[in-house]
Amino acid sequence: MSSKGSLTRQSVIDKSLQIFSVKGYHNSSINDILEATGLTKGGFYGHFASKEELWTASYDKAVEIWKGIVFKGIRETADPVERIAKTIENDLQDYIGSGVFAGGCFFFNNLVELSGQSAQLSDRILRGLEDFSRLLASWLAEADRKGMLRPGLDHKGIADFVVVSINGAAALYSASRDPRILRETVVQLRSYLDHLKS
C-alpha cells in the first residue's frame, strides 16, 4: 500500500474510532463512515473488506491509544502496588476523564452493545480485559514476593475487582459526565490497595 493509501487508511480508522465509540458497532453504518471520511464506497472497500474488518482495526488502534495513556510512567515505578495505583489513576483520569473518545470508553461502550450480538467481537474485548487483570495480578504477586502484602491474598480476585471497579466508574461517568465519580473511585481504590499492604 502506498504511503498515501496508508495515511488514508489511518484517517479512516481514527474517524471510525469516534463513530464506534459514540454509536457502537451495529448502529454505525458504512454511510456514517463515508460521510465522516469523505470516501466513496469503492474507496472504503479498497481499504477494508468489511465494517467488521474496520472495527477490528479500530479496536487495535484503541488498544494502542489506551496503553499509551494508561501505562505512562509505569516502567519508572518500581513499587508494584504503586504501579497499580498509578495505572488506575491514568485509566480513570487521563483516559476516561479526558475525553479521548467522544462516547467515553471505547471498550466498555462496545462491549455492552456487542454482548449477545457478536461473540467474536465481544470476546476480543473480554480477552483484553482479562489480559489487563492478569497483568495487575502479576504485579500483586510481585509485591507479595517482596513481602509488601498481607499473606494469603487472592491476587486474581483483587485484580478482577479493580478492573470491574474501573469499568463501573467508566459506565457511571459516561452516563453523567460527573468527574467526582472518577476522582472518588481513584481515592477509594487507592485506599483499598493500601489496606492490602503488610
Q: Could you give me the name of the CATH homologous superfamily of the domain at 60-196?
A: Tetracycline Repressor, domain 2
Proportion of beta-strand residues: under 5%
Distance from first to last alpha carbon: 56 Å
Low-confidence blocks of residues: none
Shape: elongated
**Largest sheet entry:** none
Keywords:
Tetracycline Repressor, domain 2, 198 residues, 9 helices, mainly alpha
Concise synopsis of the structure shown:
With 198 residues, this protein is mainly alpha-helical. 75% of the residues lie in helices and 0% in strands.
Ordered list of secondary-structure elements with their pairings:
Layout (H helix, E strand, L loop, with lengths): L2 H21 L6 H8 L3 H7 L3 H20 L9 H17 L9 H9 L4 H27 L9 H22 L2 H18 L2
Can you walk me through this structure?
The chain is mostly helical and 198 residues long. Helices cover 75% and strands 0% of the residues. It contains nine helices and no strands. It is elongated, with a radius of gyration of 19 Å. The termini are far apart. The mean pLDDT is 94.
